């Protein structure tokens, strides 16, 4: 029998996460005695201590979530190209010679999700009649890498599918991304690989053009090929002309976007409220073919997804991404193929139970 090992999720907050139930289900299915726990790690010192424990072997491996995906890179012994190319990591692997290597499995998982969403021309959600399903619906159209948690947020709003309508094809022209943390950087890479011609990013911490230009995350986003813009809501009474123009440019780009991607923790259980994020999106101006994606999966209906449903857009939450990255993490740690369907089922069951008691 294999030696029991401890794997962990490290971040702040972590109580929303389905990672423990996914990995526990996978370990049991493959008769592995391992344990997976979520550790709330609020400070940089706490993070460094956990990395040291991975290096010593007390912890066999770790997933990294907000807010540590970028800062952890300076604490490891080596950075795999998957993480170096993006500037963020979500997986730590311990080698036999006691080295800690950082990887990124977020970008490929998100790429699979977005590719499926963009190709999906099944009937869209539309505002409609009474009798619609009372809760969001997820389905699993295809799997190998954990793609497609196909979620129609409009179902939770009294919105139904019209079977005679088809979603318009979605071109891969313009993508706008809200957020420039680890998930936002992974989103830039995913959109770039999917062939989007223009990728524009904004985040709340970029209140002005000066703050944006001084920001390491903005520098990283531009290095990945994205355009950056200050947060498009006036936060100070006086803004420079450059800031005003850049904010206007982002708003114009968002209005003509083919993909709107929410990559912050806004709206997450235990995270900041999501209304500030929804407030910068010109919902009434979006084209009918536009797609919306929220990396948040708990709760299943965020303010961003609620607005997407009201607009009648094809939209998806982040469950498929979290399953996809988890499956790749599992393989990095164990060398075994992850039971993706089982991990997804465990995550969905956990979320359904949590939703029913809230």
UniProtKB/TrEMBL annotation:
Protein residues bound to NADP(+): 81, 179-183, 295, 318
Reactions it catalyzes: shikimate + NADP(+) = 3-dehydroshikimate + NADPH + H(+)
UniProt-recorded name of the protein: Shikimate dehydrogenase (NADP(+))
GO cellular component: cytosol
Active site: 69
Subunit structure: Homodimer.
Span of domain SDH C-terminal: 318-347
Keyword Aminoacyl-tRNA synthetase: no
Coiled coil feature spans: none
Primary role: Involved in the biosynthesis of the chorismate, which leads to the biosynthesis of aromatic amino acids. Catalyzes the reversible NADPH linked reduction of 3-dehydroshikimate (DHSA) to yield shikimate (SA).
Entry similarity comment: Belongs to the shikimate dehydrogenase family.
Species for this entry: Chondromyces apiculatus DSM 436
Entry GO MF terms: NADP binding; shikimate 3-dehydrogenase (NADP+) activity
Region Disordered: start-end pairs: 119-148
Positions with a binding annotation for shikimate: 17-19, 65, 90, 106, 297, 325
Enzyme class, UniProt record, top EC level: oxidoreductase
Pathway membership, UniProt: Metabolic intermediate biosynthesis; chorismate biosynthesis; chorismate from D-erythrose 4-phosphate and phosphoenolpyruvate: step 4/7
Domain Shikimate dehydrogenase substrate binding N-terminal: residue ranges: 9-92
């Amino acid at each position: 029998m294999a030696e029991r090992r401890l794997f962990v999720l490290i971040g702040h907050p972590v109580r929303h996460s389905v990672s423990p139930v996914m990995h526990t289900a996978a370990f049991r299915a493959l008769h592995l005695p391992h344990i997976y726990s979520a550790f709330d790690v609020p400070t940089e010192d706490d993070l460094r201590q956990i990395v040291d424990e991975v290096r010593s072997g007390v912890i066999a491996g770790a997933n990294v979530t907000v807010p540590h995906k970028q800062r952890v890179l300076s604490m490891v012994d080596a950075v795999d190209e998957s993480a170096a190319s993006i500037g963020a990591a979500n997986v730590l692997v311990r080698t036999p010679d006691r080295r800690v290597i950082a990887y990124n499995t977020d970008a490929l998982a998100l790429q699979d999700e977005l590719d499926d969403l963009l190709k999906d021309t099944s009937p869209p959600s539309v505002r409609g009649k009474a009798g619609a399903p009372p809760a969001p619906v997820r389905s699993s159209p295809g799997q190998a890498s954990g793609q497609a948690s196909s979620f129609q947020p409009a179902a939770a709003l009294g919105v139904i599918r019209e079977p005679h309508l088809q979603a318009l094809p979605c071109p891969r022209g313009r993508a706008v991304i809200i957020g420039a943390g680890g998930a936002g950087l992974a989103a830039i890479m995913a959109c770039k690989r999917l062939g989007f011609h223009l990728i524009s990013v904004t985040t709340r911490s970029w209140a002005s053009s000066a703050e944006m230009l001084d920001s390491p995350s903005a520098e990283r986003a531009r290095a990945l090929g994205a355009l950056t813009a200050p947060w498009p809501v006036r936060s100070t009474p006086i803004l420079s002309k450059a800031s005003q123009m850049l904010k206007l440019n982002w708003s114009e780009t968002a209005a003509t976007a083919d993909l709107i991607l929410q990559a912050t923790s806004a709206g997450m259980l235990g995270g900041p409220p999501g209304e500030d994020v929804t407030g910068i999106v010109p919902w009434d101006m979006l084209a009918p073919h536009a797609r919306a994606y929220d990396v948040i999966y708990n709760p299943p209906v965020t303010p961003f997804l609620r607005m997407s449903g009201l607009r009648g857009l094809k939209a998806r939450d982040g469950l498929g991404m979290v399953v996809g990255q988890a499956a790749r993490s599992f393989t990095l740690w164990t060398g075994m193929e992850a039971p993706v369907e089982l991990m997804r089922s465990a995550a969905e069951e956990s979320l359904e139970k949590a939703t029913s008691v809230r």
